Every structure is written in C-alpha cells, then in structure tokens.
C-alpha cells in the first residue's frame, strides 16, 4: 500500500532577539516622549511643546515604529498559517487594553479622551492584516503607500461624524490625546508585513534568529517582549512620580493668558512667521475674552458650539492680521 508522509507540525516561530531589542528601544523612546508630555501637562515646560516641530515628528516616528513592528510580528507569527488560538488570545489582550484606556481617559480627560489610539489601531490592524499575509510583498508596499497617501486626497465631510472618526478621513481632526486612525497608520503595518516577507525570502530572518546580544540588552529586550505591559504601566507611573515631585517643587505659576498665547504661537509658527503669529494670537485672546468664550477654552469645553465659534474667530483673526501686515510700510 502507498504510504503518505506524516504532516510536518507547525511549531511556534522562534523569537528574534533583534526585533525584541528594537521594540524595547521603541518603548524607551515612547516613555521619553510621554515624560516630556507629562512635564508640559504639569507646567514644567512651555505649552504646546510636544505637539509641534521636532517633538511632533519624534512622536510620529515612535508610533510608526510600533505599527511597523506589529506588522512584522503578525507575519512572523502567522505568515505560514494562522495560529488561531494564539491570535485570538493576543487580540483579546490588545483590544481589552484599548477599551480600558478609552474608559480611563474618558473619566480623566473627557474633552480629549483616547477613543482610537495606537492600541485600537494595532487591534484593528491585526484583523485586517491577516488578509494581506499571502499577498506579494511588492503589492503590499503599493497598497501601504496608497493608504498613507489617502488622507491627502480622500478627505470628505462624510467622515466628519464621530462614528467614523476612526477611519481618519474627516476634514477636521477630532481632539484626542492619542489619535491613530486607520488612514494613514495602517500603511505602517502593511509596510512591516511586506518587510518581513522580503526579509524571509532573502534569508535575513534565518540569519537574525541565532544572533544574541550582550548583558546590556537584557532590559530593553525584556521590555520589547512585554511591550503591552510597559505601555499600560509607564504613564501612570510617570504621572504619579511627577505629581509627587510637584507637591514638593511646584511648577511656576503662569497666568492662563500667557499659557494661551504661548501655546497659540507655538502651533501657529509651524505654518506662519513670528510677526504674523504674535498678532494673530493676541487677536484670538482679545476676541475670545470680549465674546466671553475664553473661560470655555481654558476649561477645554468639548462642545461643537464652542469649537465652531473658535474656528470662526480664527478666520476673523487671520484676515485681520493679514490686513494689518499688508498695511504696514
């Protein structure tokens, strides 16, 4: 009788220390950014510092690296066949953590709670990414480029409804302390899948698997292997530490008007020059005070009515400032 070879069992993929090390270093970068954000929140650094310029680029690079590595990990774990028990276990952990963060931030900072942050993105991308594991890597890269480019060309009022903010194609960006929508960020996950596909076909993964690092790498590698726990714990610890520090060495008291002006000018200077921003922000402050709306701004009132009023004021102050500058000799 003809015999058939026994099926080769699918064994779980071997962890690659190099990837855990990179992920661990990314968690260090994340903690450094959040530490600076917390210092800003408690008033130890100038308002708006982490939302603009190099800090803004730094934050996006950190988020992109985590999502890229999530794509790599998805392919390493399931590229030769989806291991459903392990997949659903990991998905439940990430989705549960994302839901917990939404609930916690809703009560802590309701005006800017995290309704679709990086963990929400990783959970959704884990599901969507399964569809792309068997596609050719070059096709995945093309699709990734299209997803990254989509917000530049496909924004529409259709996506302005809060129920569709997770898509990332609304004309106005919603306020949140961590907003990582499907477009363009799923592109980073697809890029990670494609990179892992190419690395496997080129034999790079096989060469990386046995590589080990010195004793110095133990802590970041451990952080990379437990990155979800690090993500969930580091911010409460940082905030608690800075709060305790502030009880002994409080930040200098800065008038609300000064904080508003500084934050406004910091954001404005990303697109306009200093002369324009100084006048524009002074106009914003004076007009909102005259209208009796400044207290709502200070209190971070999330209402659509106030948001619309601030938007109208911005248009008024932009036109007024441009007229004033054009009238100067």
Question: Topology, please?
Answer:
Elements: H1 17-41, H2 53-78, H3 84-108, H4 118-129, H5 137-153, H6 182-201, H7 204-208, H8 218-225, H9 227-248, H10 256-268, H11 274-290, H12 294-298, H13 304-327
Helix pairs in contact: 1-2, 1-8, 1-9, 2-4, 2-6, 3-4, 4-6, 5-6, 10-11, 11-13
Distance between the termini: 100 Å
Average per-residue pLDDT, rounded, comes to 91
How many distinct helices?
13
The shape, in one word, is globular
The main sheet comes to: none
Question: What oligomeric state is this?
Answer: single chain
Topology as a string of helices (H) and strands (E):
HHHHHHHHHHHHH
Number of domains: 2
Can you tell me the residue ranges where pLDDT is under 50 for at least 5 consecutive residues?
1-12
Structural class: mainly alpha
Nearest-angstrom radius of gyration? 24 Å
What's the number of extended β-strand segments?
0
Provide the helix percentage.
Answer: 55-70%
| Strand fraction | under 5%
Tell me what the structure shows.
The protein folds into 2 domains: about 15-245, no CATH class; about 255-325, no CATH class. The protein is mainly α. The model is unreliable at about 1-10 (pLDDT under 50). It has helices at about 15-40, 55-80, 85-110, 120-130, 135-155, 180-200, 205-210, 220-225, 225-250, 255-270, 275-290, 295-300, 305-325. About 65% of the residues lie in helices and about 0% in strands.
